[in-house]
Specification:
Strand content: 15-25%
Structural class: alpha/beta
Helix content: 25-40%
Largest sheet: 12 strands, mixed
Radius of gyration: 23 Å
Number of strands: 25
Number of helices: 18
Amino acid sequence: MSHLSDIEIANSVTMKSIVEVAKEAGIDVEQLNLYGKYKAKLDVNELPKMKNQPNGKLILVTAITPTAAGEGKTTTSVGLADALRKMGKKAMLALREPSLGPVFGMKGGAAGGGYAQVVPMEDINLHFTGDFHAIGAANNLLAAMLDNHIHQGNALRIDNRRITWKRVVDMNDRQLRHIVDGLQGKANGVPREDGYDITVASEIMAILCLAQNILDLKERLKKIIVGYTYDGEPVTAGDLKATGAMAALLKEAIHPNLVQTLEHTPALIHGGPFANIAHGCNSVLATKMALKYADYAVTEAGFGADLGAEKFIDIKCRLADLKPDAVVLVATVRALKMHGGVSKKELGEENVSAILSGLPNLEKHLENIRDVYGLPVVVAINKFPTDTDAELQAVYNSCEKMGVEVAVSDVWGQGGAGGVALAEKVIALAEEENHFSYTYDTQDSIKEKLTKVVQKVYGGTGIELTPAAKKELSELERLGFGSYPICIAKTQYSFSEDAKRIGRPKDFTITIRNLKVSAGAGFIVALTGNIMTMPGLPKVPAAENIDIDEFGTITGLF
């Protein structure tokens, strides 16, 4: 087991040129727009030309409810793809891009870890190819055009008390959650309450990730609702004539980014919505391209399976006509002990009884994947040096009772070689009969959809709507959005809306405090509890440990 940091491990491996990686994956070099030697954009216009080619198997990697101990979904995804290639299979990754918010905050990056990483990890975790900047620019252009329209006479009669469009920045900046702008006189605009979201929570991020091509992207941008008139009618980006300019800013960002793992497995990294406040999946375009170029496309959905996997299935798969062939549920002995009530400081000590107390969380996620989504599943135990045989056996016994296979994964320490046992089970699972189904039907009412997710997936008793949410629900149905899928924004740390209710809580309701439509993305967002769309930095931000030397070498980045 290595004692090197992630960045030291990444820097110790010699990368292949991205042209070579592309050739080995069967990608024509003419389709690449090179961003230096190790990164490239892959031309989405090639996808329609491959429509008659068969798709590979789609493997979804998800996890139990997250804890401060971490689960290692991305690490497992990377290691699994490496393992599949090591076994002679043609595999490709389709992952999300990291947000600068967590990179400089507390969660860390999203490039994997140990010997299961995508590289160049510094680039991927920082500016990468500029996609997030383009999304932020398009978002803020629309905000500027909206406020300018009001300032210049407000021909559309926009009610500035009912503006729903916020500005964004890809940083954890709590100071910007609620602001007042347009101050200091008439020349500086119309004063109003305003606020910022983090870029990854923006509707434009969701649109980029769900768009099928540039024309679909434009159509979706046109439908964005920015606010309402004095008569209560929606005002769109199309009404503001902003669509063309926004799409022009996104013309490069729509193309998926090609990089590689430490073992030179091709990886498409594109888009990055959070799964607690957004739909939490990489782009449809990257996933579909991976399915054409590989026999096994390995993708992940953010946070626990109650959030990322539910949205992957009920939003992404539904809107893009995708169907997973197998699911990997990542768990760690450490996280199970935390769900059993053990503090982070005591995780190094053997505690089988805590494992037994925490296992109901794992079991609920397994029930959801198998019984609600109808998909074959294998549990991947992401191995840590402190795991004991007795603790691992407790997990095996629980899964055996449920008839679910388990594989210990040591990809952090061994790379692809540590994931072969998992890969073997995934290959077998992907051939099994599949009873794929959604949590709800599109014809269900908004209230029925919300209730079904809470009851079936979270294990709660139902929902409670605040007076504001009731009013918003009626308005959304009046405007014809009742058939849209729903994206529930909820804490990632619990099935409930209370982050402190760990394990498998029961007898709880979910309070829906607000409902708003992302008409361009094609779903309704339901905000629960005290969830925020702009995170804040912790007491000691990760940014304090990041530095760069005279030779351009970055340190402290994991």
